[in-house]
Amino acid sequence: MASLPAGPEIERLVQLLAKLPGLGPRSARRAALALLKKREGLLEPLAIAMRDAANAIRVCEICGNLDTASPCSLCRDTRRDAHILCVVEDVADLWALERAGVFRGKYHVLGGALSALDGVTPERLNVSALLSRVVSGVEEVILAMNATVEGQTTAHYLMDALQPSGVKVTRLAHGVPVGGELDYLDEGTLFAAFKARREL
Amino acid sequence: MASLPAGPEIERLVQLLAKLPGLGPRSARRAALALLKKREGLLEPLAIAMRDAANAIRVCEICGNLDTASPCSLCRDTRRDAHILCVVEDVADLWALERAGVFRGKYHVLGGALSALDGVTPERLNVSALLSRVVSGVEEVILAMNATVEGQTTAHYLMDALQPSGVKVTRLAHGVPVGGELDYLDEGTLFAAFKARREL
Fold first, then answer.
1. CATH pick for A80-199 out of 3.40.50.280, 3.40.50.300, 3.40.1360.10, 3.20.20.140
2. Concatenated DSSP letters for B68-86?
3. What's the fold here for domain B8-56?
4. Does this complex have an ipTM over 0.85?
């Protein structure tokens, strides 16, 4: 990134903002200017919110979710079905499923996906806790990994690891996304959608 | 935004991040998670950088630029040609021109563009300082407004306001952007490009 015609403090702010996912160099510069212009309305409240969130955040000792309490609010919620576990790679995936409101069981957050390239081994994921949880009364484990190579590798690994427990293991369906146009879909998705076609 | 399955502190962090330009609800959630996961590597340095930048920032008393000193580094730079002033709407525009390295004169930052809709009158912009600067030895004023309705309204207003001073007033050329394909350009740009065509 070329040096800005401003002081090193502003340069540093832009550099750190550019590390946030979704912000490139250009949007980091715009975000830095917005922060500096709205000092009382945005910069100071955001600094306080960052400190408060950093102080409040806990990793749930049961499922690995991020919340302000451990066990997290989902693990404490007795209205949720403890017989079904939905395994996700990341907290962001848990949030996405909660937004969709499709699942009323409990979650388990792995904290990533297996990746030989990035050196992510099963030991670095929240796997052994999952195997311990499955022993006590869980009837179904839904593997809700991303439909990526890493996600599917992780799903296969977990399927093997869960087999001795005898628990029912399922995975999310692959197919044409709702609202998706065939013309824009990749071969892999079309192949999966054909293979899993259903009679009407 | 639907409530997150996390505490109010995290919710508040996401809400404030979503106020940054370029971050929607989804990217604000991803940014919040990235901050909380990389507490020592990202959240704490960013909090410090925000505080440092907020403390260091000054509005240049001459040109209205944001810098860590006033007069700003560009106004202090004696190698820059003080006979040419480039008027921009915003600091971001100044940064863009500096990145391009096309201009070696001095700048003047208006702090916005005239907008009847948003109630931005000439009094709310850095206009009177511009008129005072022009008196003392400035030979050319380049109006580098955005090619929007507000930007062009502002340019027309400034042209009228600068006329009594007798200074030469120019504006940036409009036309086909370099690398642009005609098929993707709007009628206004094509019209401007035809009107300003040059003999080869």
1. 3.40.1360.10
2. SSSS-HHHH-TTSEEEEEE
3. Helicase, Ruva Protein; domain 3 (1.10.8)
4. no
